[in-house]
Amino acid sequence: MSAKHKKRLNAVTSARVSLLDKSTTILEGKNSKMKSTATTNNPEMNNGSLFSILNVVLGLAAMVSISYVNVTYTYQSHENTLWFTNIKEVEREISFRTESGLYYSYYKQLVDSPSLWQGIRDLTEDKLTEHPDIVNILARMNIYQEVILAFIYRNINFQMEPIMFYINFVFYLQGILIVGIYLLTWFLSNSWLAGLLASIFYIFNKNDTNRVSSAIPLRECFSLPFLWVQAAALTIYFKPAVSHLLERLSLTAVAFSTFFFCLFWQFNQFIMMLQAFALFGVWVLGLIPASKIKKVMLCQLCSLLLVCLLQFGNKMILGSLAVSFIMVSLTLLSVFKSPSESGSVFFNLLRVVGLSIISLSLMFLLSSVLKVLFQIDADEHIFTFLSDKFTQRDTKNFDSRIYLCLQIFGFITYDVFERLTENFVLPLYVPTHLILLLILVYTVLHRWRSQVKDNKLIDNKENVSEYYFEKHPDIAFHIVLAVFFGALAIITLRMKYFWTPYVCVFAALGVGNEDFWSFVLRLTKASNKHMGVSQQVTLVRSALLVLTIAVVTGKLLPGVMKELEAKYEFWDPDTVELMEWIVQNTKPTDSFTGSMQLLAGVKLCTLRPITNHPHYEDKYLRQKTKQLYQIYGKQPPEHVHNILKKYNCNYIILEDSICRAPSREGCRTPDIVDIDNGVMPDDYFKIPDLIVSKTPRFCEMVRHQTQEYAKFFKAVFQNKTFRIYKVL
């Protein structure tokens, strides 16, 4: 065909398309007018619209109600355990164990400071937390939530004590978390009853879904609510048929919730990395367009970099795998504009595997380069711990053994599955997630096979309605992310709080999934002459959701009511006596050394300088802690004295619960210190190259105050639990 004929043919084709478009526009205009008139004159359609409005109002009312129930339940559980409103201030503060007490101490400093600005300046030049070093706490730790709460408390005249304002704020944040889970399930299932069921599952499984009532100031209690708000917003954003306005609003919600999640917890980088993996996965499978994925990844990257900026250039974030993977992914998404629209199943599978390997390889490469460039070594203990954990070797490394010996950093325990099963949620979750995963695999493979026929491209738009995840890409994203969160929970028990809310969501989705019940009704050919299929589906799933809510509530509510009837009171007289003695008998400038967990409480209750603490994300601090822990090792008194003098320590606090702890297969603190020193622990332990030391254990021998020890250390306080020695 000549060029002239081609031009003429193209012109004719363009004219036909233009005429067709105009005709379509006219017809659409006429149809819209006819629909408008029909709606006005049709009372059934008006009734349907009224029902939709009423349904939304009921759904929102149920959401607010269940959110308030969760806040009240969390508050009451905490109150019944400690009788928090009735105990002394020092007892309240002691109840914030380990790192919780450390975080709360900064809020206390900010509230008690002459001005908020002065309090912030003191935190940037802190002399109490790592004596004798001066550190910038805002750069080292994620404590902007304490700054925000102190600002609110100081500027609004609340008729309550600072500590009560603090814990109540955290409890109300758990109400926001329920809102996030409720909306997420509602958006996924198109039923607010499913959202209510997911929320009920979450509340009844509180032992495995959160630990707010037992550790209020933990970073996760502030950040997790924003993660689930983000999940709900992402669900709206990823839906294929959403208005431009709603898309922009949902993306804005994603941006803000992602930022606050990252700001409030130091583990942000690991969760953002898993989210980025899921985002990359749904893109490379062709389920969500690159344009949407890139915008969400930009929200992640901007949030991490903004947090890095607010933390005075926190280099640990810059060198994180999350930042590297997001940067690599954004590059790949720009180079490979969209998934291949042609090719065999093998070709597409090869493409997915190839892009995944490339992205992961570049992630590790870029992260390594950034770490060398910025001299980042703060997170090396994490990778050492993971290496030792998965190789199952008997490591001598002090930092690794501390993590490996803590149950919360071990693999998930069987009792978690037992409780989730007894509370009905796991039996509903497992088949739902498995079936959805199988449908996802089938959809992707079917889509790849359907793309090419006789080496000619098929218009996929005509087939979109035939494939489940073409209509529900939002569900596809959450399916993939839940797999990553599940894997994280299995390898690290502490991280189960990311996975168990998804268990609740998918369990409710399994009961209230609209497409599933539509398929069942069509398959069984169950029809009603007076009702359409859509109405039957709504009736069936609503009835099943109500029935499930009734059964779950009926079975589990009596146990909750019995739990709320049991009332206890905080009782730790030895620790109270210790803190009161320190306040009354030492100078405000006197510094203390002891276990990391105890020293966090010492700083909070006495405002005395401490040498080390449980926030373990700095290499220098880890090395310093290892030296100071020689107080529990087999060391001569002069060696321990030299270490303490090196760090200008005035007092040491020894705990018999640590010094005389029973053997735990090399997991006692004294054993960890011995093994790191190359010394055989008291209880024989099978690690090669350990020697038997003839030097007695320091923490045990110093109690006798023999001349050899008394010339370096003077006993000044003792009760059934603690001993304090002044460093001479």
UniProtKB/TrEMBL annotation:
One example of the protein's molecular function in GO is: mannosyltransferase activity
Topological type in the membrane: Multi-pass membrane protein
Membrane-spanning residues: 50-69, 165-188, 216-237, 249-267, 273-289, 296-312, 318-336, 348-370, 424-445, 475-493, 500-519, 539-557
Could you tell me which InterPro entries the record lists for this protein? Dpy-19/Dpy-19-like, Dpy19
Q: Name one Pfam family in it.
A: Dpy19
Primary location group:
membrane
Q: Which GO terms describe its cellular component?
A: nuclear inner membrane
What keywords appear on the UniProt entry?
A: Glycosyltransferase, Membrane, Transferase, Transmembrane, Transmembrane helix
Compartments annotated for it: namely: Membrane
Task: Give the protein family.
Answer: Belongs to the dpy-19 family.
Listed name of the protein = C-mannosyltransferase DPY19L3 isoform X1
Query: Origin organism of this chain?
Result: Biomphalaria pfeifferi (Bloodfluke planorb)
